[in-house]
Amino acid sequence: MISITGTLAAFFLVIYLLSRNKSLATAMLAGSLLVGITASDSLTANLAAFFPTLYQALIDPITIQLVSLVALVTVFAYIMKEISLLQELIEITRYFISNLYLTITAIPSVIGMLPIPGGAIFSAPIIAPLGEKMEMSGARMTSINIYYRHLWYFCFPYIPSLIIAASLSGLNVYTIAAMHLPIVAIMIVVGWLYYTRTESRVVENASRSASRKSRQQGQDKEIKYQVRPSWKKILEVIMPFIIVLFPPIFLPIEFTFSLLLGIIYVILIKRESFQLKMISRGFDGKLTLGVLGIMIFRTFIENSEGVFNLTEIFMEAGIPLLLLALIIPFLAGLLTGNHVGAIGIAYPILLVLFTDSNLYSLWHMIIFSSSYFGYVLSPFHLCNLMTIEYFDTTLKKYYRDMVIPFTGTAAGIMVLSIIYYYFLNG
After folding, report:
1. DSSP letter, residue 209
2. Are the CB atoms for 153 and 165 separated by under 8 Å?
3. Most buried residue, 53, 133, 229, 342, by CB count within 10 Å?
4. Angle at CA of residue 278, ends 274 and 280, nearest 5°
């Protein structure tokens, strides 16, 4: 019971500290401490395991990769902005896609197809100037970035969580993708109806902070393409992103290495505009430490008995199967902030209950969807925390802006489930 109490208390502690404007690193380390000392019913064992668990988190290759990636991404984005390549990319995109809404949603959507951990931080600096032109609040830009960044999680066959789901369920990944495709259509329709109706003149009530203003300095100089930009110019502008995003997909190299190559390439082609101080100014230490805190918290959660014990209580309480299929995956995603982790917890426990059902694929879709919502809304979700930090908004404002589009999507999935139910039973 101690582990369950500690896990839930840590969840609310982190939310409380973030709501009090404490730093991301502070909130996550406080949550980690609480989870660590309540990981099991034995306080002695918990204290003995605390520093080994902390060490495990710090030397984890994924932690090192993510911390390095975030540090380099902020430097990359800052240099791209300061030497006007980012603005040129936006104007080229606007030349070919005149609708601002399509532009600001297409960027995180396309980047979302790439299996980049914390990939929302790639799209945030690109959509920021567009959001400013549309007078969007930080919460609105965060909401759009997260909503469209995760649009393809339901059907793109190279998304890691979809691959893991196929492996654990025994269903073909393309069968799952086809079954989930209407959900993507629902999200597109809901997003279009919500964001296009409310996008204009949405301005933050609170004043913009100095950190956010500093990101926007130097963006007043606008580059307008009245005629079609040359292929040479287009290639020059998109080449840094090609260098950063695609080699790790096709070659055995890490994203951090390709980011370094991208930074070096930008410095070389714009050496007349580049200044060495751009590197230090672009480094966001607060965000980088925040990511480190998230990864430490994630390790403590994974090593704690809390999530698993909580799941067992639900299983033993005689709760109806539908509620189990909704509650357990959602809580797993919410508490871990990791979709693969949520699926890894929920699938082995739940799918065995539906193995002989002719509605097996429908139960799979319900469990997957529930884990998705828990993961995307999790206050520990890397994309949420990094984007909120970048746009200088709060978790509360972000949630307020996500209520309608996610409620609409959930309602659409419910209707789709009813249709599949009658189809599979027919």
Report:
1. P
2. no
3. 342
4. 145
Look at residues 373, 374, 351, 375 and name the one whose alpha carbon lies nearest to residue 364. 351
Q: Rounded to whole angstroms, how far apart are CA atoms 213 and 224?
A: 23
- Which tokens in the block code for residue 372? 């998705």
- The DSSP secondary-structure symbol of 228 reads P
Residue 47: what pLDDT?
Answer: 93
Asked if 28 and 293 count as a contact pair (C-beta separation under 8 A), the reply is: yes
Distance CA 388, CA 170 (A): 37
Residues contacting residue 179 through CB under 8 Å, at least 6 positions apart: 361, 365, 420
Most confident of 89-103, 111-125, 247-261: 247-261
The maximal CA–CA distance of the chain, rounded, in angstroms, is: 71
195 Cβ contact list (under 8 Å, min separation 6): 101, 105, 144, 405
Distance of CA 265 to the CA centre of its chain: 27
Q: Give me the numbers of helices (H) and strands (E) for the chain, helices first please.
A: 22, 0
Q: What is the mean pLDDT of residues 258-265?
A: 89
Contact 153, 383 (CB under 8 A): no
Residue type, 51: F
On the question of pLDDT at 215 being above 60, the answer is no
44-90: pLDDT as tens digits: 999 999 999 999 999 988 788 878 877 887 788 788 878 877 677 76
250 vs 384: CA distance, rounded Å? 28
Q: Whole-angstrom Cα distance, residue 64 to residue 87?
A: 31
Which residue carries 């480094």 as its tokens?
Answer: 283
pLDDT at 117: 62
Burial of 238 (0-12, 13-18, 19+ CB in 10 A): middle
H/E run at residue 188: helix 173-198
**For 213, phi and psi rounded to 5 degrees?**
-60, -35
Reduce the DSSP state of residue 26 to 3 states and report it.
Answer: helix
Cα separation, 399 vs 146, whole angstroms: 11
**Phi, psi of 117, deg, nearest 5:** -60, 130
CA atoms within 13 A on the CB side of 166: 20
Q: How far apart are CA 62 and CA 117, in angstroms?
A: 9
Name the pTM for this structure.
0.69
Q: Measuring CA to CA, how many Å separate 261 from each of 146, 240, 285?
A: 27, 9, 21
* N-to-C CA span, the chain: 45
